Amino acid sequence: MDWKLLFTVFATIFVTEIGDKTQLATLLYASGAEVSRLTVFLGASLSLILTSAQGVFGRLCALPLC
């Protein structure tokens, strides 16, 4: 594993995601009094993982959405 590349990708994505609309939408969902913060965290994490996977592996597919 290339640790330098891993850190570079992590730092770049982390810094660019701070304060964007995804984070603000997640904050809005989590601010509800009767909302499970764990459920919001898992839903937001899963969506970011899937969109990242599409960006990384999308070029391997013939269709825009695999």
Provide the descriptors you would attach to this structure in a database record.
66 residues; mainly alpha; 0% strand; extended
What features would you describe in this structure?
The model has no long low-confidence stretch (mean pLDDT 84). This protein is mostly helical. The longest helix has 21 residues. α2 runs antiparallel to α3. The protein starts with a helix and ends in a 9-residue tail after the last helix. The protein is extended, with a radius of gyration of 15 Å.
Task: Report on the biggest sheet.
Answer: none
Give helix % range: 55-70%
Give the overall form. extended
Please give the number of β-strands: 0
Determine the structural class based on helices, strands and strand pairing: mainly alpha
Number of discrete helical segments: 3
How far apart are the termini? 26 Å
**Poorly predicted runs of 5 or more residues:** none
Which value, in Å, is the CA radius of gyration? Answer: 15 Å
Mean pLDDT: 84
Proportion of strand residues: under 5%
How does the SSE layout of this entry go?
Blueprint lengths: L2 H15 L3 H10 L6 H21 L9
Helix pairs in contact: 2-3
